[in-house]
Specification:
By secondary structure, the chain is an alpha+beta fold. It has two helices and five strands. The protein is 28% helix and 34% strand.
Length: 83
């Protein structure tokens, strides 16, 4: 199953992203980002379905919640993408 991981710089930003996306009807969950994905010590990831990225980015930008990085997860591998 493909999904995107939107990296936030802190748990607070990840929670704000989750609330904004949920208000827009986009299902997501937050968790601590994998150590291999980022060099930020306290980064968190917001996971969304692969088909929701194009709807999620305008929501996040409209709330001034810009992602640090975005990764596509496919079959256990991660690839950084640019929106």
């Amino acid at each position: 199953m493909e999904h995107y991981l939107i990296i936030a710089r802190s748990v607070t930003y990840a929670q704000r992203m989750q609330r904004a996306l949920s208000r827009s009807g986009i299902r997501c969950r937050i968790f601590r980002a994998h150590r291999d994905l980022t060099d930020l010590g306290c980064a968190y990831a917001v996971e969304i379905a692969a088909g929701d990225l194009s709807a999620a980015l305008p929501v996040l930008h409209g709330e001034a919640l810009n992602p640090v990085q975005i990764f596509l997860s496919q079959r256990g591998t991660f690839r950084e993408v640019t929106p």
